[in-house]
Inverse folding.
């Protein structure tokens, strides 16, 4: 057995209505970066939660370094040297960054008195290592999702561990931060630590992993060295069928009249003088690196942020929203990037979450609301997006992370607003469902909806958009029409264009 | 992050939610001073207000811990009656030394804290129901033990706690200040305090971070029991014994003080100094109502309104902090 550092044997776990793990045997070599992939709901997080002591398996055994271990709770997992970055943020908004990083092992002078000097010094060092320029004493609640994720990474590095479990660590991050994370992961590997890396971005898997395990429906399909597989092979094993083309070919499309116009929109310190218009049936990309201000533009349009100056014109009339609810009432939908925090009612059933934003008139039949229709619509989307749930009456919190994302995406796709702003719509979503989302978005555009498509994944922008606006440090730096779109061109502008490269 | 982009409004709102309570204290003081100058100088001076605030104030310390962990305790008034009754009976009927009396009062409240804590943390009972049951049971037991009679006449050691001075400062005020300083220390400077905030902020995340959540909740109720004990001692000393209506409705004053002070029912947010300010406000209001000699009906209506106001404030605060949308 000596060659595997970690072995999980015959692990089973059943939730009410779901057999999440069906006798999984999973082994990882010491000093390896081991990828774990599979569709949403395949059981990846469940398997890792067993390793992290978060849930107890119904049966099965775990060996570390050849020794049988019993991981009865998360504390025990930490003691055994298992560090875990969870798929959902597990930070405390009203505690400082430093206390969050060291929540599991606050440095103290005997008797439980916190040693603030050590706490802040070590936190500052860790923040530097993960590349987050923030005061360790600042509260976590004011951080963006990407910054929060970097705090999570710092937290995982805060104590000596031998096994690092990273459950979709990059989904809130953009390229530069991802590179930094990869640098840290490689450092850990060089120190001989073992890393389990879960991601839906297969590029990342091929970039960083030594070997990869594919899961499907609570079972392990295959484990191979990374050099002996390729993307198509992995995808085929994950979904158990051949996938059709990812993006629709949609070169000639009729665009209608201008539906939304934004003039000289300014919100300091995020962005200045943003000027563009969106036509019916158009998919307008909005691209930029982290901090470029894309999400903030969207938030300002829908009234989540209050603008400093500028105009938003909907159907020829100037509008001013002081809350996103008002934007929804006027037909502007917004799928935010923080879906768990802002988009999902975790205690509510899946179908209610999906149909929450539907305009009531769409369900009206005569004077009565047709509530049966509500469930039909929900069923439709559950099927189309392949949301893994025993029934539409399951509480949203019991779904896997990616399936929760799908629920929120479904909510906006079926709400049928006039203008839909989507911020990272495919983040955390598996390859199969991704192409479904592309299809649905394209169809909505075909039907005349105007869509603003914010994404950090350049392939998505290239495949989906009729036109892309590139932002750099709060300014619109370029507008690229579909015919001229190339990866190089967009990246050139996103990193500063003439201003930097000339 | 709702409202994150409203700098000016945000600052005003921040100021209001953070300092509203201190502004209201000032407002109440000035209003009372203007309308009842005589009473103001005799009763409404800082020292007397602090003495009157000491019982609710000390209870609000423990209640802050409880509410920060997103729990509640409705039994404090009854438990105070129960503990004081036991202590007084031990001293007056069984002839125990006053030190024993003192200890019995403390042990009783800590014991009830442990019972409540076990029910809530281990047996996963709903805190509202568990402590509502305690509220009834312990008042009933105390009635039984005392035959619902008043017993007066405390030995000097006990009375000193209520009317004595240490230098220029009344002993209840010293106990009040000590309670707050130590609670501040525990919440802000000790590991345990961080766990308390973590458990209240996100139980699931606290569990994943390796914190023994039920244990923390149990300890919080134990600590709360201790503070209820200190408050009961002051109560016993100042009443010079035990009366049947002791502590009736006190849970409302205590909870209102904590919520007015900025601790949120949703858990994870709050601080003790706010609770102290809240206790002072409640005391000012109680005193004013007494001076005005308002009828019992109006008294209840007014007190009810204050609770309502506190809850509205809390909802507003939760929305502003982005805890609910
Ligand atoms: N607490 C729970 N109660 C009920 N069902 C659950 C619970 N946790 C997970 N499940 C179910 O177990 C299955 C596996 O979920 P898991 O979270 O492991 O998926 P995953 O592979 O991590 O997916 P994703 O890529 O979406 O994160 C899913 O069908 C999910 O609905
Ligand atoms: Mg998962």
């Amino acid at each position: 057995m000596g060659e595997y550092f970690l072995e999980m044997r015959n692990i089973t776990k059943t939730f009410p209505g779901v057999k999440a793990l069906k006798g999984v045997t999973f082994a990882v070599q010491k000093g390896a970066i081991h990828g774990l992939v599979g569709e949403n709901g395949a059981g990846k997080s469940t398997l890792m939660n067993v390793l992290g002591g978060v849930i107890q398996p119904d049966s099965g055994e775990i060996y570390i370094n050849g020794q049988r271990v019993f991981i009865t709770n998360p504390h025990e997992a930490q003691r055994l040297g298992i560090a875990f970055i969870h798929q959902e943020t597990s930070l405390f908004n009203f505690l400082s960054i430093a206390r969050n990083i060291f929540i599991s092992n606050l440095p103290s002078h005997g008797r439980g008195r916190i040693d603030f000097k050590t706490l802040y010094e070590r936190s500052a060092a860790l923040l530097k290592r993960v590349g987050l320029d923030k005061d360790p004493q600042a509260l976590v609640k004011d951080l963006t999702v990407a910054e929060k994720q970097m705090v999570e990474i710092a937290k995982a590095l805060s104590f000596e561990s031998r096994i690092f479990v990273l459950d979709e660590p990059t989904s809130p991050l953009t390229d530069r931060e991802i590179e930094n994370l990869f640098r840290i992961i490689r450092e850990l590997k060089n120190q001989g630590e073992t890393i389990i890396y879960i991601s839906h971005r297969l590029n990342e898997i091929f970039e960083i992993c030594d070997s990869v395990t594919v899961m499907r429906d609570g079972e392990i399909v295959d484990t191979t060295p990374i050099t002996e597989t390729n993307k198509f092979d992995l995808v085929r094993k994950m979904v158990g069928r051949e996938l059709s083309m990812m993006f629709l070919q949609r070169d000639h499309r009729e665009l209608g009249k201008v539906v939304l116009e934004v003039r000289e929109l300014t919100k300091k310190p995020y962005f200045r003088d943003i000027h563009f218009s969106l036509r019916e049936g158009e998919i307008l990309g909005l691209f930029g690196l982290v901090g470029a201000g894309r999400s903030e533009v969207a938030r300002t349009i829908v009234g989540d942020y209050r603008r400093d100056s500028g105009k938003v014109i909907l159907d020829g009339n100037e509008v001013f929203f002081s809350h996103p609810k008002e934007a929804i009432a006027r037909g502007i939908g917004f799928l935010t990037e923080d879906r768990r925090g802002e988009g999902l009612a975790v205690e509510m059933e899946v179908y209610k979450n999906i149909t929450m934003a539907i305009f009531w008139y769409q369900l009206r039949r005569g004077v009565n609301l047709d509530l049966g229709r509500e469930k039909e619509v929900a069923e439709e989307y559950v099927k189309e997006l392949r949301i893994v749930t025993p029934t539409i009456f399951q509480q949203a919190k019991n779904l896997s992370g990616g399936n929760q994302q799908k629920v929120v995406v479904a909510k906006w796709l079926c709400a049928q607003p006039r203008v839909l702003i989507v911020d990272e719509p495919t983040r955390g979503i598996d390859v199969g469902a991704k192409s479904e989302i592309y299809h649905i978005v394209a169809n909505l555009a075909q039907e005349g909806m105007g869509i603003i498509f914010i994404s950090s994944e350049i392939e998505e922008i290239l495949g989906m958009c009729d036109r892309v606006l590139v932002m750099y440090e709060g300014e619109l730096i370029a507008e690229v029409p579909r015919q001229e779109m190339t990866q190089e061109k967009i990246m050139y502008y996103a990193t500063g264009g003439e201003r930097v490269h000339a | 992050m709702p409202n994150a982009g409203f700098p000016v409004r945000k600052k005003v709102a921040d100021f209001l939610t953070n300092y509203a309570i201190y502004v209201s204290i000032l407002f109440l003081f000035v209003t009372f001073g203007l309308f009842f100058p005589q009473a103001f100088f005799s009763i409404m001076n800082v020292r007397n207000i602090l003495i009157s605030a000491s019982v609710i104030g000390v209870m609000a310390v423990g209640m802050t811990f409880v509410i920060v962990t997103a729990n509640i305790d409705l039994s404090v008034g009854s438990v105070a009656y129960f503990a004081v009754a036991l202590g007084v009976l031990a001293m007056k009927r069984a002839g125990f030394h006053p030190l024993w009396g003192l200890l019995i009062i403390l042990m009783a409240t800590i014991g009830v804290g442990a019972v409540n804590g076990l029910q809530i943390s281990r047996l996963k009972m709903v805190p509202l129901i568990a402590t509502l049951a305690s509220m009834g049971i312990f008042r009933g037991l105390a009635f039984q033990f005392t035959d619902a009679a008043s017993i007066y006449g405390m030995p000097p050691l006990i009375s000193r706690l209520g009317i004595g001075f240490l230098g220029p400062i009344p002993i209840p005020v010293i106990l009040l200040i000590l309670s707050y300083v130590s609670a501040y220390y525990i919440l802000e400077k000790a590991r345990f305090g961080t766990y308390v905030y973590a458990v209240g902020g996100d139980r699931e995340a606290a569990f994943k971070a390796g914190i023994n959540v039920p244990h923390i909740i149990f300890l919080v109720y134990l600590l709360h029991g201790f503070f209820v004990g200190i408050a009961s001692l002051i109560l016993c000393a100042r009443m010079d014994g035990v009366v049947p209506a002791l502590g009736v409705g006190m849970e409302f004053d205590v909870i209102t003080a904590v919520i007015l002070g900025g601790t949120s029912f949703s858990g994870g947010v709050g601080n003790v100094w706010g609770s102290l300010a809240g206790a002072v406000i409640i005391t000012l209001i109680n005193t004013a109502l007494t001076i005005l000699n308002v009828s019992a009906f109006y008294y209840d209506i007014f007190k009810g309104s204050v609770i309502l106001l506190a809850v509205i404030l809390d909802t507003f605060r939760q929305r502003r902090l982005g805890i609910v949308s």
In short: Residues A 44-45, 87, 167, 400-401 surround magnesium ion (ligand 2) (CB under 6 Å). Residues 1-7 of chain B have pLDDT under 50 and may be disordered. The first strand of chain B starts at residue 151 and ends at 152.
